[in-house]
Design a protein that fits this description.
- The protein is an all-alpha fold and 156 residues long.
- It has three domains: 2-55, Winged helix-like DNA-binding domain superfamily/Winged helix DNA-binding domain (Arc Repressor Mutant, subunit A), CATH 1.10.10; 58-99, Winged helix-like DNA-binding domain superfamily/Winged helix DNA-binding domain (Arc Repressor Mutant, subunit A); 103-155, Orthogonal Bundle (Arc Repressor Mutant, subunit A), CATH 1.10.10.
- It is built from nine helices and no strands.
């Protein structure tokens, strides 16, 4: 009887965490383990939640990617952060594709917000802004386009 009540406790705690926000399976497993639940209890609880449609890595990846893109992060950074959170490559690819984002326009907007509308004239300024954009997770071709003044892919 102990195992059943402990499994139910793990599921209830996971549900409380999911009520606040989406979590990946790995995040929930880590949090439940930190609360003293045995690995088999955690696995059973998470399997039950996934089976009931209450926990989904695909749904988590979609919400996380949308949130990070809205905050001005690029696809490389979003992909890396989702990997760190234990989301699979298939879910990551679907989440990024679902954004249908114009990464060049997004990078241009976030660069202008940080550095102003005028593009840097000197190589040092371009290098600094390029490093900053790469740190935000934008690919090299997007960074080069933004620093050349391309606002969207259509204007190339």
């Amino acid at each position: 009887m102990r195992a059943r009540s402990s499994r139910a406790t793990a599921r209830a705690q996971a549900l409380r965490l999911l009520a606040r926000r989406e979590h990946s399976r790995v995040e929930l497993a880590t949090k439940l383990a930190a609360r003293g639940h045995a690995p088999e209890e955690v696995a059973a609880a998470l399997d039950s939640l996934a089976r009931d449609g209450l926990q989904s890595d695909a749904r988590y990846a979609e919400a996380y990617a949308r949130s990070r893109a809205e905050r001005g992060y690029g696809p490389l950074r979003i992909r890396a952060e989702l990997r760190e959170r234990g989301v699979g490559e298939a879910e990551i690819a679907l989440a990024l594709a679902g954004l249908e984002a114009d990464w060049t326009a997004a990078a241009a907007a976030v660069r202008a917000r940080r550095f102003g509308d005028a593009l840097p004239e000197d190589p040092a300024g371009r290098a600094r802004q390029g490093r900053w954009l790469r740190g935000r997770g934008f690919p090299d071709d997007v960074v080069r386009g933004v620093l050349r003044g391309w606002e969207t892919d259509d204007e190339r």
